[in-house]
Amino acid sequence: MLAFKNVSKSYRLKGIKKTILSDFTFEFPTDRNIGIMGKNGVGKSTMMRLIAGTEPPDFGHIFRAPRISWPLGFSGGFNGSMTGIENIRFVSRIYGQDTKRVIEYVTAFAELGRSIRLPIKTYSSGMKARLAFGLSMAIDFDVYLIDEITAVGDEDFKKKSQAVFQDKLADSQIIMVSHSPTTIKQYCDCGLLFEGQTIRFFDDVADLLSAYADLNRR
Amino acid sequence: MKLITTSDLLSLQVRVIASLVLREARATFGTSPFGYVWAIITPTVSVALLVFIFSLIGRQPPFGSSLALFFATGILTLQFYTELSNKLMTVFDANRALLTYPIIKDVDTLIARALLIAATYAMIMFIFYAALILLGLAPLPARPEHLVAAFLATWFLGLGFGSLNAIIFSLWDTWGQIEKILTRPLFFVSGIFYVPSQLPPQAREVLQWNPVLHLVEWFRHGFYSNYNSTILDIWYPVSIGAALFLLGLAGERFFRKARF
Q: Residue A77 and residue B101: Cβ atoms within 8 Å?
């Protein structure tokens, strides 16, 4: 179960209060892929952090039973002075995975060659993203969080990522933030739309997309 | 979908903390095996130096026949405590990036760092005291079980004060400077180079409020068969440690939102 119960969240920056959620109650469907849309700065990324549990709500409760990923492809959790292997080992340990299997999988997938034994601070951003993506794929999550899918690597790598990801979708669910109607349509079958102060759930992705288009026209 | 059981949560907690200890060890000591050796040698040598200087000035040892043992019980204990209260202070800031992984929480990083410091100091103390005994500078401990208990109590007090430090520091970073000034006198009021029981009653009256003094006395009680401290109350540092740790945890919960 992944559910928000009477959740409120706001930020106060330089005296200006910005409300993201107020008394929001919602139970996420467990067998569907959910898109989250809305204009810039309405709080979609905050919503992702609340779902992941990396940030607490001001009021209310978030019930979270499934194993939820960190935002796909995000490499901010890596320790720069540790090598690729060491970072992989750490993450697979905290998630209780077979360390050897994960290292083999990520090494083969990320195609970093011998760089995998060098400190992460020597990596380019593309290399880091490939490592982070491979690592999220190596661990079995129930829910994958995606904050704007960003394709990394060359054509071959993109194709490979796509294939692996499609494969994952058979057993896992995704919750995705995106501005792109094409991406949402490709991956999601229902969704939430941030419209000013309210958040609306759409059971059908086509309705979500047309409401989003209306929102942008206004 | 099934709910998570308590035993699952506990094993998750243990797994996360164990991984963090390993990572912290790697980050602190580097990749070379000498990193860890250095981490143990540096404090050992600095204590040895202090003991050496004291014994140069040295008159008769304040208690027992070994000046080195007497000072070591004081300095090593204080250093272990100080290391905890200092290093834990910055733990939340240092590990901010790790919170990217939803599975890791602030308190895990705190416990992990405290465990690593405990392991390091257990090693340091073992080497130091074993060396003193082998060199004939110290007798075998009279009450080894009390040494273990005193070590655990020192860890607990350091963890308590360190976690409270971590909370205050995360809300107000000037605290780092203030804490340094406030704890500077500990070197003089913790009974490192005198026997607290031999002080005039007025002095004892004041000094007995210092929990670190009790820990130093506890270590000596463990080593000497006839130390007969009139001050030592083993429950005092333990209760202070428990109170501070609970206060620290409550602070973590209470100010959690303020830290984001």
A: yes
Q: How far apart are CA A91 and CA A158, in angstroms?
A: 24
B114-120 — which CB contacts under 8 Å span 24+ positions? B114/B84, B114/B88, B114/B155, B114/B158, B114/B159, B114/B162, B115/B17, B115/B21, B116/B21, B116/B24, B116/B25, B116/B28, B117/B80, B117/B83, B117/B84, B117/B87, B117/B158, B118/B155, B119/B21, B120/B39, B120/B40
CB contact under 8 A, A95 and B103: yes
φ, ψ at A181 (rounded to 5°): -60, -35
Question: Nearest residue on chain A to B11, judged by CA atoms?
Answer: A96
Chain A partners within 8 Å of B22 (Cβ): 90, 93
Residues 92-151 of A with CB under 8 A from B: 93-96
Residue among B241, B172, B12, B25 at smallest CA distance from B105: B12
CA atoms of A107 and A117, how far apart (whole Å): 10
What tokens were used for B15? 């797994």
Distance, in Å, from the CA atom of B51 to the CA atom of B130, rounded to the nearest integer, reads 15
Give the integer Cα–Cα distance in Å for B8 and B21.
Answer: 20
Q: Which of A1, A45, A74, A94 to mutate to test the interface with B (most CBs of B within 10 A)?
A: A94
By the CB < 8 Å criterion, does B180 face chain A?
no
For helices B33-57 and B6-29, give the axis angle rounded to 10 degrees. Answer: 70
Tokens 């903390």 belong to residue: B17
How do the pLDDT tens digits run along chain A, 218 residues long?
Answer: 899 999 999 888 778 888 888 899 999 998 899 999 998 888 888 899 899 888 889 899 999 888 888 888 788 889 888 999 999 999 999 998 999 999 999 999 888 889 999 999 999 888 888 898 899 899 989 999 988 876 677 788 888 888 888 888 888 999 999 988 998 998 899 999 998 778 899 999 999 999 999 888 87
B154, B215 in Cβ contact below 8 A? yes
pTM, two decimal places:
0.88
Do residue A77 and residue B102 have CB atoms under 8 angstroms apart? no
Cα angle B174, B177, B181 (rounded to 5 degrees) comes to 140
Select from B1, B2, B100 the Cβ nearest to the Cβ of A77. B100
CB-nearest to B97 from A55, A76, A90 is A76
Strands (E), chain A: 2-13, 16-27, 34-38, 59-64, 143-147, 173-177, 190-195, 198-202
d(CA B77, CA B151): 8
Closest CA to B252 of B108, B101, B117, B86: B108
